[in-house]
Specification:
It is a single chain. This protein folds into four domains: about 1-35; about 40-140, PAS domain (Beta-Lactamase), CATH 3.30.450; about 155-240, Helix Hairpins (Orthogonal Bundle); about 245-395, Histidine kinase-like ATPase, C-terminal domain (Heat Shock Protein 90), CATH 3.30.565.10. By secondary structure, it is of the alpha+beta class. Helix content is about 50%, strand content about 20%. The strands form three sheets. A five-stranded antiparallel β-sheet has the order 2-1-5-4-3, sandwiched between helices. A five-stranded mixed β-sheet has the order 7-9-10-12-11. Strands 6-8 form a two-stranded antiparallel sheet. The chain has helices at about 1-35, 55-60, 70-75, 85-95, 140-200, 210-240, 250-260, 265-270, 285-300, 360-370, and strands spanning about 40-45, 50, 100-105, 115-125, 130-140, 245-250, 270-275, 280-285, 310-315, 320-325, 375-380, 385-390.
Length: about 400
């Protein structure tokens, strides 16, 4: 009897505690939804009854007296572009059991347009769709920031395009200026060369040996200065050119350039070993200059050897390929390596080895335009290895 009375007294107390706990949890959920600007909703397929949490009412800008059971009125909150999207998504959820996750524009009862993210999830019981539930979240701040970022990116791209156009225009003008300067400088050089030739031919009888020697110096220096001017124009043009990237068969190109820069006599006296080097992504015309300069360099500096050997090889990693041209020529002093790829820097002054000193500078310019690196090594008189590295990924160029 006492136990039954005790139980009768406890049950109402426990029920009160449970009710209080549920109310606290419900209040906490409401506060959490308000802070996160996210509300929950549910649609009962059998009864067509719609249930909203308090935050859903706030997101729509309506009071709790609003009746959400009229689906047509609910859809009317969306903008003309968003309304058919949510209507079709909800229809497919109810009829086909398809979940959805959408970002749409909604016009609150106050007239304010906001961005929302709404998700719908289908519940299936005994192979029948019984309800569709989900949430709706006010994402206006994030969406506006995203749209502003998109606008800024588009504006930045537009500015980059405009500056690229201006840069290309400036480059064309600079290139034209360089050509004009070269033409103006070469005109008197052509006169010097021409008149020197006339003097050497028509006045040879009145010139003594010293006069002829001096006249020869004038002619050779005029030709050298003309070559220097041409090299300046060439390296200026390369530096202002945007590479036209294409797939290049490097082995075929190296072989073709070897036969182009070497004479028949040189080819017969050189052992040319061409390895299985991989293709690359690059500008075809520019890369021809790289091979042409490196191979002509190797041919030139092996000219004094009884046995002349030139080897072309490559090493490949995941990100890049290293191409090498090795010769058994006269080599160079490693302490001068910092001058090797600079314009008009010649390490060998012997008149046997002609040139302006622009070839390796052109190689460096081309490879750096392709996002690569150049280098060389030599132990003195035992030959030289020139190498260049190119990225395998054309997007990094």
């Amino acid at each position: 009897m006492n136990d039954e009375l005790h139980n009768d007294l406890i049950d109402p107390i426990e029920c009160g505690h449970i009710k209080e706990s549920l109310e606290k949890k419900s209040l906490l959920l409401e506060e959490s939804q308000a802070i996160a600007h996210i509300g929950g909703w549910e649609f009962d397929v059998q009864t067509s009854r719609v249930t909203w949490t308090s935050e859903v009412y706030r997101i729509h800008g309506v009071g709790l007296e609003y009746n959400p059971n009229n689906l047509r009125n609910n859809i009317a909150f969306y903008t003309p572009s968003s309304a058919p999207v949510i209507e079709e998504a909800f229809k497919r959820a109810v009829e086909n059991g398809e979940n959805y996750d959408l970002e749409l524009e909604l016009v609150q009862a106050t007239g304010k347009t906001i961005w929302i993210r709404t998700m719908g999830r289908v519940t299936v019981e005994k192979r029948a769709i019984t309800r569709v539930s989900g949430n709706i979240m006010d994402i206006t701040d994030r969406k506006l920031a995203q749209l502003e970022l998109t606008r800024l990116n588009a504006e930045l791209e537009s500015r980059v395009r405009q500056r690229t156009i201006r840069l290309e225009t400036a480059n064309r003008e600079l290139e034209a200026f360089a050509y004009n300067i070269a033409h103006d400088l070469k005109a008197p050089l052509r006169a010097i060369s021409g008149f020197s030739a006339i003097l050497a031919e028509d006045y040879a009888s009145v010139l003594d040996d010293e006069g002829k020697r001096l006249l020869g110096i004038v002619s050779s220096n005029a030709e050298r200065l003309s070559s220097l001017i041409s090299d300046i124009v060439e390296i200026t043009r390369i530096g202002m050119t945007i590479p036209r990237i294409a797939r290049i068969a490097m082995r075929s190109m190296a072989l073709a350039m070897y036969h182009e820069v070497a004479s028949a006599e040189e080819i017969s006296g050189i052992t040319f070993n061409l390895g299985a080097i991989p293709d690359c992504e690059g500008d075809t015309l520019m890369m021809r200059k790289v091979w042409g300069n490196l191979l002509s360099n190797a041919i030139k500096f092996t000219s004094g050897k009884a046995e002349r050997i030139i080897e072309v090889s490559a090493e490949t990693s995941d990100r890049e390929t290293k191409y090498s041209v090795r010769d058994n020529g006269i080599g160079f002093d490693p302490k001068y390596i910092d001058k090797l790829f600079k314009l008009f820097r010649r390490l060998h002054r012997d008149p046997v080895y002609t040139g302006t000193g622009a070839g390796l500078a052109i190689v460096r310019c081309v490879i750096e335009l392709h996002g690569g690196k150049v280098g060389a090594s030599s132990s003195g008189s035992t030959g030289t290895v020139f190498w260049f590295i190119l990225p395998r990924n054309p997007e990094s160029i």
